[in-house]
Amino acid sequence: MKKLSLILALVLVLTCGVLAACGDKTEESSAAESVAESAAESKAESSAAATESSEAATEESSEAATESSEAEESSEAEESEPSEEIPEGSAPSELKGKNVALNKSYTGGDVAITTGDGTACGYTANLTDGQARMVSAYDGTWFALWCNKNSSLPSNNAPDGVGTIIVDLGKSTKDINAIRVNLYQANTSGIGAPESIVAYVSEDNTNWTAVGTLVLPETTDPAWAEIAVDNATAQYVKLVITLTDTWCFLNEIEVYA
Q: According to CATH, what is the number of the domain 106-256?
């Protein structure tokens, strides 16, 4: 009987030991799983943070590249489309010296060809002969720039509605103080006031300096468009005349020095 009790006691002790060992292994396994889960979560968070950082860096790089590209395009546009500032002109308070354009040669005064068979118009006045016409007329006492935008016939003396006349003063001339153009702004029969007349001066007929925009007369009767010049030195005077109608009538150009 004692032996049986000792055997049972021994079995009980062994059973308790086995259970205790199993419990320790379960706790160790649970702890190991907890550590593994924590490490996995940490790695996932680190990966997500790295992804966000990479995306942010990519977006910033893309935005910077876009801004740089836009800046380059803007710079190229500015370089390819230089703007010329034309100063506003004022009428001269008085004319000093003499008309140095008198009887001088000029280019750009070709007679307008207004028909497909090459017929020239009758407006053929000499622009530097000193005969400023102060009477309105529809004849050869006036010179005409012509451009009919409703016609298939291209203009020969005002392409795209812009006529250019260059007067050669014959030599370099100092102290130029005024430039004038005699106009007939009829505002009828297709004869209109020009949109603008811009004056330029040059010593070599290649490099030009803008003097400014002539002041147009405020009348439909023949009158002078003119501009004061600040003692310029030049041999050539260029007038760029932009039309607003089919015809622009003028008959004399004067340059005072």
A: 2.60.120.1190
Residue 38 has pLDDT above 60, yes or no: no
Cα separation, 126 vs 182, whole angstroms: 12
Task: 65-71: list long-range contacts, CB under 8 Å, 24+ apart.
Answer: none
What tokens were used for 237? 């005077």
Tell me which residue has tokens 């106009």: 183
CA atoms of 169 and 100, how far apart (whole Å): 7
CA atoms within 13 A on the CB side of 154: 3
**CA-angle at 141, arms to 222 and 144, nearest 5°:** 75
- Rounded to two decimals, what is the model's pTM? 0.69
- Helix ranges (H only) for 115-215 are none
Summarised one tens digit per residue, pLDDT across range 140-160 is 999 999 999 899 999 999 999
User: Most confidently modeled of 49-53, 64-68, 151-155, 167-171?
Assistant: 167-171
User: Nearest to residue 106, comparing CAs of 248, 2, 236?
Assistant: 236
- CB contact at 8 A, 237 and 229: no
- What is the separation, in whole angstroms, between the first and last Cα of the chain? 151
What confidence tier does 8 reach under pLDDT thresholds 50, 70, 90? Answer: low
Phi-psi region of 82 (alpha: psi -120 to 50; beta: other; left: phi over 0): beta
User: Is residue 249 within 8 Å of residue 142, measured between CB atoms?
Assistant: yes
Helices (H), the chain: 2-80
Band (46; pLDDT cuts 50, 70, 90): very low
